[in-house]
Amino acid sequence: MKKILLYISIVVVVIMAAGCNSNGENKKQENSKANNSDGEMADELLNGSDEVMAVLDDLQANLENKEENSELIQKTGKDLEENWDEMEKKVEENFPEDYESIEESLYPLISESQKDQGDSAKMKVLVTQTKEKLESFNEKLAKE
Question: How far is 85 from 2, CA to CA, in rounded Å?
Answer without folding.
Answer: 71
